[in-house]
Amino acid sequence: MTAFSFNKLVIFGVGLIGGSLARALRVRGSSAREGARVIGVGRSASSVSRALELGVIDAAATLDDEAALAAALDGADIVLIAAPVAQTQALLERIAPHLGSETIVTDAGSTKSDVIAAARAALGARIGQFVPGHPIAGRESSGVDAALPDLYVGRNVVLCPLDENAPASVERIAAMWRATGAVIGEMPAAQHDRVFASVSHLPHVLSFALVDQILASPDAQLKFSFAAGGFRDFTRIAASSPEMWRDVCLANRTALLAELDGYTEVLARLRAAIDAGDGAALETVFARSRAAREAWQERGGKGAAAAIETAPGK
Amino acid sequence: MTAFSFNKLVIFGVGLIGGSLARALRVRGSSAREGARVIGVGRSASSVSRALELGVIDAAATLDDEAALAAALDGADIVLIAAPVAQTQALLERIAPHLGSETIVTDAGSTKSDVIAAARAALGARIGQFVPGHPIAGRESSGVDAALPDLYVGRNVVLCPLDENAPASVERIAAMWRATGAVIGEMPAAQHDRVFASVSHLPHVLSFALVDQILASPDAQLKFSFAAGGFRDFTRIAASSPEMWRDVCLANRTALLAELDGYTEVLARLRAAIDAGDGAALETVFARSRAAREAWQERGGKGAAAAIETAPGK
């Protein structure tokens, strides 16, 4: 962990992601020094009151009180947007009029190309103040009650720096995440979106699709009755938030469609092998998949930090 | 648990499934009475020696010793075939010459229509002595060292009785599995194969396919580096045995292709919704999938026994 201190951090959306950052900086960082304040901003009083109650934030402001919003942003070192990606542009448009020249804005969205486009639209010439980020740390639970000080320990945070970003700004955001125990990776936004379309967004779509297919079949209840461990693991992510995944699918549409089309081709090849009774072809695919899956598991299985060193874009 | 006693049980293939049955009957059943013997049959001496060493079986025979095989089968109450489904017909052809008129044969294969066809070919007019079965109890590990006396507690065992089976024969096999703590369901073989194509075989193919797609992509290592919890759960079953799943795909080809085609149609609809930016359609599918997945989890999540009562065919 590296030293990281701040005077004022403003978090838009104090849920699992934003709340865990606040808790981590309070508990773990040198940021626990006197005077460092975390301000939470929510859509309404009720959405931030629980975060205040839990002591996750020191003060709150709401979007419906322009003066409070201005006061919250005044003199902020860092602003984190930890709201659904579809809200990014609207939030940045509310932030822009009050954005100090020394303030760095970052985000926690699962997609990056669309967030960057939204930031360019909202911030214009001040786009250099926005450092795109993505902490890879979902949990099945959500909301500020699920926030944990050690959520980010050993997890990856991907930054997608812009040409307009000052290196010091990128390093400041990296230092904040490092203080939570996270490991920092960097890559271009387009590559980020391809990678996560493949290893996260596509599997969610595939998992939702399987449950939907079963539901639509005439013997759905019988099928669910006999579903066992394989089904349980495969469909765990189908219990994820429909709104969040709707937004992710639309926000990362281009990369996701490309991955989905590639996947459909793989399935078509496997279908042909099954249809032709080509056991050798099936076994070849299954065996190399198993070997790759096992190698991944052995390397740590949750975004192995060592491998990040080789990531292009660093 | 119901009373179940036997004089001689012969198990072809003493691995996880056959070994766990032997252990369960020894530990749990009234079968632990004096004189009840479990004989293991393997391809070679080495394949059964470990089972003998562990005390899972009382005696062993091998397929390469016809006299020992005849002696093993002589006077057997029950014969269980717990070998890969592709070996069923060859094993039944070896068993047939020594099959006593009072002996009941059953199996533990993941597919049933092909096993029944193999049994009809091998047993001819004596097909009534064969009661097709399927214990739903895989584990990540395999082999007799992984065998557990409580593997079947609370698990489903599906029987697919034939018109030729005497009701007493079916009840005898059901009683054996009940003695292990399992819950018995019955359904026709074609329905069994559809159900497991949907909730087990298809998800395995889909999981292998995702890993294979990533492997074939130019930035495979980067993708694996950032794969996290969703990927881990979704691809856990891609660590399964390539040989076993090759055999299952071929053995259950018809039902699996039908499910695969249905799934491809669901994916095509989701693709169209993503392409059209139709968030409402995506959210509808995701929300009803999540609700169904959560309801399944709440009902017990591993083949809820209560739901079996409603299974057609009982």
TrEMBL record, chains A, B:
The cross-references to Pfam families, in alphabetical order and at most eight, read:
PDH_C (PF20463), PDH_N (PF02153)
Keyword presence, Amino-acid biosynthesis? yes
Documented EC number(s): 1.3.1.12
| InterPro entries to which the protein is assigned, alphabetical | 6-PGluconate_DH-like_C_sf, NAD(P)-bd_dom_sf, PDH_C, PDH_N, Preph/Arog_dehydrog, Prephen_DH
Catalysed reaction equations from the record: prephenate + NAD(+) = 3-(4-hydroxyphenyl)pyruvate + CO2 + NADH
- Give the UniProt keywords, A-Z: Amino-acid biosynthesis, Aromatic amino acid biosynthesis, NAD, Oxidoreductase, Tyrosine biosynthesis
Q: Name a single GO biological process.
A: tyrosine biosynthetic process
Q: Where is the Prephenate/arogenate dehydrogenase domain?
A: 7-304
Residues spanning the signal sequence:
none
Instruction: Give, as in the UniProt entry, the pathway in which the protein acts.
Output: Amino-acid biosynthesis; L-tyrosine biosynthesis; (4-hydroxyphenyl)pyruvate from prephenate (NAD(+) route): step 1/1
Q: Which domain of life is it from?
A: Bacteria
Extract the GO molecular function terms from the UniProt entry: NAD+ binding; prephenate dehydrogenase (NAD+) activity; prephenate dehydrogenase (NADP+) activity
Membership in a protein family: Belongs to the prephenate/arogenate dehydrogenase family.
The entry's protein name is prephenate dehydrogenase
